[in-house]
Structures are given as structure tokens and as C-alpha cells.
UniProtKB/TrEMBL annotation:
Residues 677-774 form the HTH araC/xylS-type domain. It comes from the Bacteria. One of its GO terms (molecular function) is sequence-specific DNA binding. The keyword Nucleotidyltransferase does not apply. SMART domains: HTH_ARAC. Keywords: DNA-binding, Membrane, Transcription, Transcription regulation, Transmembrane, Transmembrane helix. This is HTH araC/xylS-type domain-containing protein. The chain crosses the membrane at residues 24-46, 303-326. Pfam families: HTH_18.
């Protein structure tokens, strides 16, 4: 009885479905109406509307693809504008001698190569500098003249900072007019009304044509771009102006109405659906035109209609018998599908008209979500892997279990079965003097080059290797290697090879630290920490070094630090006195003392860091903010990059001490007179007290060294001489005009009695008592 009621309820729910009812009725109708007539009716009356829908869908796809092309051209314009405003491409380019200043020439070539590789549409990049002589980078350095100079000079006379153009002006009537590549130019400097040069970006003709061809999904037809002057820019059709494209352009001029639209074009017994629209470019407006054969657009409809006729004719014989069975079987999977998809119960509660509305809604959502996730996963997988590795080696994933970490790594594409892990740290060091300034300006380029070289070299030695750029002139490699193979020999070979490449390309010394081998993912952060600690045991000298922690059974014990405090005091005193040469000699002595017990980085860096901290303390004590001298640079990070003693001496002397002393002396020239006048007033008011150079410097908020130099320069005598002269003048006045005891006079002018007698005799020539006696004798004589 229960089964009977369940079946009755299912039948009732089935008849509530509009689709089931319509399907049941339709089969009954087909039973009594000849299937052939129904098929022909569907073919003749339905094809027009479906054809119209397909055409509209085709046009919508073209508009969406046109937006994608427009975005890529926007990206090229924005990217070129950003490069044009780079400090490297300032007005100073016109004054550079690119032959003698080869470092600047090499950096410009490197920048042009980076720009050239920044987008797949770019074929090559040129830099024209209207200097004397005129220079053209292609990207290599060339001197130009004559017609070639006149040609590139036209880019500066267009009065447009950024502009699209053809590389060569060719009459439109020629068949190969559309074969010339597009160029995007930007004058230099970026916002100058009087440009000194320009960057010329030439697009790849074939790739541009392929990009334009994506406007239509069919191999037949044509697609092209024209500018606001109706000149053909790019076409995917080789017939040029004389063939199909030429006829289409003539018809387009007649049919164009508004910024976008469509029309039907007849050519050689074929109908084409033509869609057009505009793209807003710099200082102009481009129009794209795409033509596709109507037969290709509507071919699925014709095929389906023919199949409907055949199936209708064949099904006519059995339709009546199978009406009920077919209805149930047709609806059964649909009912199951609706039950699965209707998670929000929209259809069961009557919010949707039929099941297909629900299926369509869910299918579109799932399709869009799937496409979005697939695109994001494809583009972001390298970033996701690097982000995961960064979190892993820095210990942020310690709470995950081993199985969970392995599962995540396998999802990212790593093969982990029977594999082990090794960390390799590559640290650039030993920067030469000639490269010192270049390293400051292009540290990111050095890091980029280091990462690229490491990636290319690792591909030749390891099947699974990921490189992380730590942005401190070092890179870390995670090598996932089969457990049974000889790994250490391969690691040594890789280290020597990449060391040789970096020596030749970057002309810098390299320290490579190789970790031990581990088989657990959770041990990877400890491997990273081991190599970071291990590379501190490198020798503090300018040479290539390989530190294999597997070979080093135990880390060498840390030697006690010998810190020469006395030499530090002498260095600080020499800095206060402005003695740069003496300071450099003392720093050499300091480095020799620090390295006396060993030349390991871990033994030397703490002492050097402490010396810099003491110098910075002296800078702050002088009332100068370190950023004023160092332009906001993190000097402690620069200390960490220095890898040999001579370089450390030059760095401390040239980058720290000399700028400080020059800044200090510059301030004395500006504030000198005001400070000295203020100090003179203090001396006049407090000469009878225990006054000193240090106390006066504190009163006027400066340091003794600055005050002493300022006093000598303004007054002509030093601080002590001025104070002594003032006190003795006051003492002579009291000796001559009062009957005070000499002890009392000494106290009134700020001296102890014994010292007063000595200082008075030294400067006046006689003791105070004899000076007063002379006054009395002269009075009696009168």
C-alpha cells in the first residue's frame, strides 16, 4: 500500500512539471501530425530567429574580443609611458658620452631589452637621442646621420608625446601597404615640450595580425583596423587593398552608422556578417571591422534542422506506441538533474518557470566559475608555488602535518614520491668599485638577472627546482631530487657552473651554501635556516666560495669577538676633527684588529656593525638625521652586503664619514655667526663660573667640534684663548680699580688662586701682585 501511494505521489509531481506536460503533449501531437511537415515547419519558420540569435551571439563575441585587443593596446601605451618617465630617460641623456660612459650605455641597452620582452606583441624597441652626434639604440649603440637621422627626427616634430604610426609611409594603393608594422612612439623626457629623443616600439606584424584575427572565430572572412583618417593599419587578409578587404572597405564607408554596428555584405555569391566598432587610442580613434561568412555561423542550425526532418520521419511510425514510455524516460534524468542542481529550492518553490531555466542558470554560473578558476590557476600557478614556498621556508606552515604539506605540494605539481629535498642559497658579493654606483641604481636588475640565471641553470641539472628571489642580492633554490641518484656531485657541478656564469655576466663574486639532504617536507624550513646560518661562515674576503653543510660535519665554533674599543674612540675623535685621511687609516687598523682572530664573516660582521652604529650615534648627536646624509638608505643592509675588508674601508670612508663631515662643515658656514655670537654672550655673562667648550656647546645645542671650528673661523682665536683674554681683562680692571684681595679677584674671574697667578704671569708677563704694585707706584709718582 505504501509503494502504491509513493508511486501515485511521484506521478502527481511529474504532471506538475510544465516540461513533462509539454513533452507528453508534443509527442502525442507528433503522433497525429506528419513528422515531415513538422520538421519542414521547424526548418522554415525557426531558422530565421535562430539565425538572428546566432548572428547576435557572434557580434557579442566580437565586441568582447575587441575589448581584449583594446586592453592589450592600452597596456602597451601605459607601459611605454611609464618607461618614458623613468629617471634613466631624462633630459640628461642628451649630454651623455655613450662611448666613455659605457656603463650607462650598457644599462640603457638592458632597459630596452627588458621593455622589449615585456609584451609578446613587441618586435623590437629603439631609443633615439637627438644629441651631438645623434644616437640610435637598436638596442645596441649606433651613431646615425643623413636620411636616417631625418627620419627619426620626425618623431620629435609631431608635437605629440605619445603616438601610433607606421614605421614607413607607403601609399595605400600598393598591395603591401598593410604589411608595414605598427609603431608606438613616446618622446623623452615624458612630459617635456622640448624633447631630446624618443622611444620607438615596433610591433610584430605577424603577431599583430594574429591578434586582430582573433576577432572572428572562423578561418574565412577578414578582419582589419583603420585609423581616423581611414588608412588601413592592420589586416589579417593578404589581398590588401585590391581584394576582398578593398571591396569590404568601400562597402563599409557606405554602411557605417555610429561608433559600432553590423551589416550584411554580399561578395562572390557569399553573404558575410560584418561587425564594426571603435577603439579609443592616443590622439586618435581606430575602427575595427570583422567579416565572417553567414554559412559558417548558421551551419549548425542547418545541420540540426535536417536531422530533425530525418528523425521526425523515422519516429513517426513508433511515436504513438512509445509516447508514454518515452515521456517518463526523458523526464527521469531531468528530474534527477533538477534535484541535484536545485540546492536553493527555487524550482520546487515555484520561483522559476521550468527546469531548463534552473539548469541554464546553474550551468552558466558553473561554466563562468570554472572558466574563471581555470584562467586564474593557469596564470597564478607560478606565483602560488612561490608564495607557498615562501611561507614554507619561513616557517608559517609549521602547524600542518607532513601528509597535508605533501598533498598541497602535489596539487601544485610537484612529484614527491621517493624524492628528497635540498636548499641552495646563492649570495652575490664582492662588488667592484666600477660597479658600485650601478649596483645602487639597479639592484633590482641584478636580483632579476640572478634569479633568471639560476632558473636557466637549474633547468639543465634538476627536473624539479624552484627559485625564490629574496631581494637582498641573493636567491634560494628548493631542489626536489630522486632519492637514489647521486645528488651531491650534481649539486657541486651546478654550483661551479652557476658560479662561473655569474662571474662572467655580473662580474661579481658568489657564495653558494648547500644544505643537507632531507626527506620530510616539514624539515624544509630548518634547511633554510641552516643555509642562512651556514653562509655566515664564509671567509670575509673577495672570493668565490662553496659551503656544503653535508660535508661540514659540524659548524666551526664561533671565535670570541675581539673589539678594539680604543681604536673606535680614536676614529670618532678623528671624525669630530674632520680628519678624513686619518679616519681612513684608523679604520684600516680597526679592520686588522677585528680580523686578528679569524676571517669568517660571522666573526667580523658584528664588530663592523657596531662601529657603524657608533658612527651613526655620533651623527645623531651632532643634530643631523641619518636620512639627510644617506637619502633614506638602509645602511645596515648595505653593511650586510659587503664581503671583503678593502670594500668595507672604502664604504665607511666614502659613503658614511665623508658625507657626514661635509654636511657638518656646510652647516657651520650657514649657522656659524649666530652660534658664535650666542656663545660670546654666554661667555660675557658666565665668565666667572666654571665654563667650558662642552657646556657652551650644550647650551647652543651643538657639539664641541662644530663650536670649536666655528669659533676659530669667526673670532680668529679659539674658545680658550677668547675666554682667557676676557677673564684677564676683567682681572686687570679689578686689580687697577679695586682694593680686593688677589684671591677674591681670582674667584670673581673664574680661576683658582694658584692657577690664576700662573696664567696671569704667562699672558701679562708679571704676577698679579706686581701688576698692582706698578699701578700703586705710578699713583705715588703722580
Amino acid at each position: 500500500m505504501l509503494n502504491f501511494f509513493n508511486k501515485a505521489q511521484k506521478k502527481q509531481e511529474r504532471f506538475k512539471s510544465r516540461y513533462f506536460r509539454n513533452n507528453f503533449i508534443l509527442i502525442l501531437v507528433v503522433t497525429f501530425i506528419p513528422g515531415l511537415i513538422s520538421g519542414v515547419g521547424i526548418y522554415w519558420f525557426g531558422v530565421h530567429e535562430v539565425e538572428k540569435s546566432l548572428v547576435n551571439l557572434h557580434e557579442e563575441q566580437i565586441y568582447q574580443r575587441a575589448e581584449n585587443i583594446n586592453d592589450q593596446l592600452d597596456y602597451l601605451e601605459i607601459s611605454l609611458s611609464n618607461w618614458a618617465f623613468e629617471p634613466r630617460f631624462s633630459a640628461a641623456l642628451a649630454d651623455i658620452d655613450f662611448v666613455t660612459e659605457f656603463q650607462e650605455t650598457r644599462d640603457i641597452i638592458g632597459s630596452l631589452l627588458v621593455l622589449q620582452g615585456s609584451h609578446p606583441l613587441i618586435d623590437h624597441v629603439e631609443l633615439f637621442v637627438d644629441s651631438n652626434p645623434p644616437v640610435l639604440f637598436q638596442p645596441s649603440y649606433n651613431v646615425i646621420a643623413g636620411e636616417e637621422y631625418d627620419f627619426y627626427r620626425t618623431f620629435l616634430s609631431s608635437h605629440k608625446n605619445i603616438d601610433w604610426n607606421r614605421l614607413y609611409e607607403i601609399p595605400e594603393e600598393t598591395d603591401f601597404a598593410d604589411s608595414m608594422p605598427l609603431v608606438l612612439t613616446h618622446t623623452l623626457p615624458g612630459n617635456s615640450s622640448n624633447p631630446i629623443g624618443s622611444i620607438i616600439v615596433t610591433l610584430n606584424r605577424n603577431k599583430t595580425a594574429e591578434l586582430i584575427k582573433t576577432l572572428t572565430p572562423y578561418n574565412q572572412g577578414a578582419t582589419f583596423l583603420i585609423n581616423s583618417e581611414n588608412r588601413l593599419l592592420v589586416s589579417d587578409n593578404s589581398t590588401g587593398e585590391t581584394g576582398f578587404v578593398g571591396h569590404l572597405r568601400e562597402r563599409f564607408q557606405e554602411e557605417v552608422n555610429g561608433s559600432q554596428g553590423s551589416f550584411v555584405f554580399q561578395h562572390e555569391d557569399e553573404s558575410y556578417s560584418v561587425s564594426y566598432g571603435t577603439m579609443r587610442r592616443i590622439n586618435s580613434e581606430w575602427t575595427y571591422v570583422s567579416a565572417a561568412p553567414m554559412s559558417l555561423i548558421t551551419s549548425p542550425l542547418v545541420l540540426i534542422s535536417q536531422i530533425i526532418i530525418v528523425i521526425s520521419s523515422a519516429g513517426l511510425l513508433v511515436a504513438l506506441i512509445l509516447t508514454w514510455v518515452a515521456s517518463k524516460r526523458i523526464y527521469s534524468p531531468l528530474a534527477k538533474l533538477v534535484k541535484v542542481l536545485d540546492t536553493e529550492r527555487n524550482w520546487n518553490e515555484g520561483k522559476l518557470e521550468d527546469e531548463f531555466t534552473l539548469i541554464e542558470k546553474q550551468f552558466k554560473e558553473l561554466s563562468n566559475e570554472s572558466l574563471s578558476l581555470q584562467n586564474r590557476l593557469t596564470t597564478q600557478l607560478p606565483q602560488l608555488k612561490n608564495s607557498f614556498l615562501t611561507q614554507l621556508i619561513q616557517g608559517y606552515l609549521y602547524h600542518y602535518k607532513e601528509e597535508e604539506l605533501r598533498e598541497r605540494m602535489q596539487q601544485y605539481g610537484w612529484e614527491l614520491k621517493d624524492h628528497c629535498f635540498v636548499i641552495i642559497d646563492i649570495q652575490v658579493s664582492g662588488v667592484k668599485d666600477s660597479e658600485k654606483e650601478a649596483l645602487k641604481q639597479g639592484e633590482s636588475l641584478v636580483a632579476f638577472a640572478l634569479t633568471n640565471i639560476a632558473e636557466e641553470a637549474s633547468e639543465q641539472h634538476f627536473k624539479q627546482c624552484n627559485v625564490l628571489n629574496l631581494y637582498d642580492l641573493s636567491a634560494v633554490l628548493l631542489v626536489v631530487h630522486p632519492r637514489q641518484e647521486k645528488l651531491r656531485d650534481e649539486l657541486q657541478l651546478f654550483s661551479k657552473e652557476i658560479m662561473d656564469v655569474l662571474n662572467r655576466v655580473l662580474e661579481m663574486q658568489v657564495t653558494i651554501t648547500i644544505s643537507k639532504t632531507e626527506e620530510n617536507v616539514k624539515r624544509i624550513p630548518y634547511l633554510f635556516e641552516d643555509v642562512r646560518k651556514g653562509k655566515r661562515y664564509r671567509n670575509f674576503e673577495n672570493q668565490n666560495q662553496i659551503i656544503d653543510l653535508q660535508i661540514m660535519e659540524s659548524i666551526t665554533e664561533i671565535s670570541p669577538i675581539h673589539y678594539p674599543f680604543e681604536i673606535e674612540k680614536e676614529i670618532l675623535q678623528a671624525i669630530r676633527m674632520g680628519q678624513i685621511n686619518e679616519t681612513e687609516k684608523l679604520i684600516e687598523m680597526f679592520i686588522e684588529e677585528v680580523t686578528e682572530l679569524g676571517v669568517k664573516d660571522i666573526n667580523i660582521k658584528p664588530g663592523i656593525t657596531q662601529l657603524y652604529s657608533s658612527i651613526q650615534h655620533e651623527i645623531i648627536h651632532a643634530g643631523i638625521h641619518p636620512d639627510e646624509i644617506f637619502d633614506g638608505k638602509n645602511m645596515f643592509e648595505e653593511v650586510a652586503l659587503i664581503g671583503e675588508p678593502k670594500q668595507m674601508i672604502r664604504w665607511l670612508t666614502d659613503e658614511v664619514i665623508t658625507p657626514f663631515i661635509e654636511t657638518l662643515e656646510g652647516r657651520v658656514n650657514i649657522e656659524m655667526k649666530q652660534i658664535v655670537v650666542q656663545v660670546c654672550s654666554i661667555i660675557q655673562a658666565k665668565y666667572m663660573e666654571d665654563i667650558s667648550l662642552e657646556s657652551c656647546a650644550e647650551d647652543v645645542h651643538t657639539n664641541p667640534y662644530t663650536l670649536s671650528k666655528a669659533f676659530k673661523k669667526v673670532i680668529g682665536v679659539n674658545f680658550i684663548e677668547y675666554l682667557t683674554t676676557l677673564r684677564l681683562d676683567k682681572a686687570k680692571e679689578l686689580l687697577l680699580n679695586t682694593d680686593l684681595k688677589i684671591n677674591d679677584i681670582a674667584e670673581q674671574v673664574g680661576y683658582r688662586h694658584s692657577y690664576f697667578n700662573r696664567i696671569f704671569k704667562k699672558h701679562i708677563g708679571v704676577p698679579p701682585s706686581q701688576f698692582r704694585k706698578r699701578r700703586n707706584d705710578s699713583t705715588q709718582v703722580k
